[in-house]
Amino acid sequence: MKKHLVGFSAVALLLAACGGNNGDGNNTTNDGSEASSAEPIELTLSGWGSSPAESEIFNATLEKFMEEHPHITVNFDVIADQYMDVTRTRLIGGNAADVFFLDAFEAPALMETGVLEPLDDYITDDFNIDDFEDPLLEAFQRDGATYGLPKDTSTLAMFYNVDMFEAAGLEGPPETWEQMEEYAQILTDSTDAFGLGVVADLARLRYIAESKGGQIATDNLASFASPEVVEALQPIIDLKDAGYAAVPADVGADWGGEMFGQGRAAMMMEGNWTISFLEDTFPNLNWDTAELPTIDGQEGSMAYTVAYVMNAESEKKDAAWELISWLTGPEGMAEWTGGGFALPTRNSVSEELGLFEDEIRAPFAEAAAYATVWADDTNLPIINNNFNNEFLSAFLGNKSLEDALQEAQDVANREVE
Questions:
Q1: DSSP assignment letter at 169
Q2: How do residues 163-197 score in pLDDT, each as one tens digit?
Q3: Does 22 map to a domain?
Q4: Are 292 and 311 in a shared domain?
Q5: Fewer CB in a 10 Å sphere around the end CB: N or C, the chain?
Q6: DSSP string spanning 106-136?
Q7: 106: domain CATH number?
Q8: For the residues of 375-390, what is the DSSP string, one character each?
Q9: Is a pLDDT exceeding 50 seen at residue 40?
Q10: Which domain holds residue 92?
Q11: pLDDT band at residue 13, thresholds of 50, 70 and 90?
Q12: pTM for the full model?
């Protein structure tokens, strides 16, 4: 294998809708360019912590911004624990940061409250908003307004063990779901591993669940017990019942990447964060990646994305836009995502970094254009928790999938109502 290195929550509180004045004491323009008269400004940017290596690259990215915008000082405020709880509390108290991270999973609830500044009046033609992958941008849009710009993303693709495939007489990864089912049986029978490793949670399975026309949620209520969703997910249960699929816990692993790296699964649907883990932890493992198998001829994957959003109460909105527009513009995005920890959300930056030609990362970059984003409605946290509890019960054979999902849906909707 050639290795290439290219240089989730509480229910949202109802927040009072707040406005804010747009004066920030400077003369910056809406396109993010520096004004001729630029008084010193301090901005606060809130986000969560990450690994030391990621933090180093992100801090370097902020330093680059401040070098090019010397009138702006950015103070990065790391919220180490209970990020959204702390952020909501600060928003209610009127002391939240000027700009902050917002996960797509949490975005729907916050976009309805009025605490986020719509960005459309700041976005100019030369910012080229059309360069963003549509699913990632749409996760932060509501009722025709744009409330955030995606800073990066991660997607799912197929990891497969090349040696196991060769031992089983298989040439290349499966291209369709039916082929993957066939491969899972062959690989299980030909190796000491399960053919397919499965992470049995909605965050990984949603695109599959909705592949037959069903919906996980409708009008903010759980609807995943529909016949279409049951039909879409039943093949996973069937693979488990036949002994061709397993979850990480079945083999004593903590997560999918570990299960695959230990050689306990020949195929695993996992995210691009797994790449560096495998390279560092299992350097002798012979593996490759591919786009996920199509379902009824349709491409599918999951995307997890985070945006920069502006506090509607910030008194430094023009400077805040300078920061957001540079970080999500081609230069700032390439600076951050070039470290290889996350994928760009702009197509042009993926091209610039050579991701579409990268043998390992190309499947993840390609998926950003068609993936289902892990976000939808304001009650997703409740829906997600109930789905996960009962789907796993069905996966372990404790009840039928139809009964499990109906029970989960009933409980979820009682909690919502």
A1: T
A2: 999 999 999 999 999 999 999 999 999 999 999 99
A3: no
A4: no
A5: C
A6: THHHHHTTT-BPP-TTT--GGG-GGGB-HHH
A7: 3.40.190.10
A8: ---TTHHHHHHHHHHH
A9: yes
A10: 41-154+303-373
A11: very low
A12: 0.88
